[in-house]
Amino acid sequence: MDWLVKIGGSLFPENAAELLKSLEGTGVAVVCGGGDFADRVRYYDRILGFSEGAAHDSAILCMDITGRLLSDLCESAVPVRTLGECREVAERGFTPVILPSELLRFTDPVEHSWRVTSDSLSLIIAHMLGAKLLIATDVDGIYTERPPASDAKLINEISAKNLLSFGETSVDEALPELLIKLKTDCYVANGKFPKRVLSILRAGASEVICTVIRGD
Questions:
Q1: Longest CA span, the chain
Q2: What are the residue boundaries of the structural domains of the chain, listed by start?
């Protein structure tokens, strides 16, 4: 399995469903961001002050929820909970949608804080699969300034070391650190345009609107 596509929660439900359907037959695996469900956990965490472990575990369960619901909207998608199930479903020609709570229950090496979101967790899962990570979100990639700033410019390629100084962008703060630690790259593209995602899966980032984050 060459690719794991993380479908951002910001795309849920309509754009996420369209993207998932477009991935039929590509042999990729999918994991979903927690979206509005995780945002509510974060909201109540600010008010009530949950323990870091409770907030972290609940946010991962939100990834399960969006993945389970999204897979129900696509006939070619099958929800899975283990790496073995993931590979088996892919071999049968379906798109495995990973519900990560069980997978990460005993193999979650990251800090439990809001610096870590589904972006970093998806990278960990991609590493488990031996796959490259493509993060599909609701913007074209990483920008010099956060959109909708008028002077924001898309960055086509950036090193994870340089990205460390950006803080939270369209990816979480911890992702650059993990990319450096794992010595791997990832791609960030706009999931509202499935053809862009498919082009990256087939031919890499050449001439595609996206950002490549280099971990070397």
A1: 47
A2: 3-214
**Strand 132-137 to 95-98 pairing:** unpaired
Torsion angle in degrees (nearest 10) through CA of 7, 37, 101, 138: 10
Pairing label, strands 95-98, 29-32: parallel
Burial tier of 122 (Cβ tally within 10 Å: 0-12, 13-18, 19+): buried
What is the phi/psi pair of residue 91, to 5°?
Answer: -65, -25
What is the band of 49 on the pLDDT scale with cuts at 50, 70, 90?
A: very high
Residues 111-150: tens digit of each pLDDT? 676 778 899 999 999 999 999 999 999 999 999 887 767 7
Stated as kind and residue range, the H or E segment containing 97 is: strand 95-98
pLDDT exceeds 70 at position 198:
yes
For the segment(s) 3-214, the CATH number from 3.40.50.970, 3.40.1160.10, 3.20.20.100, 3.80.30.20 is: 3.40.1160.10
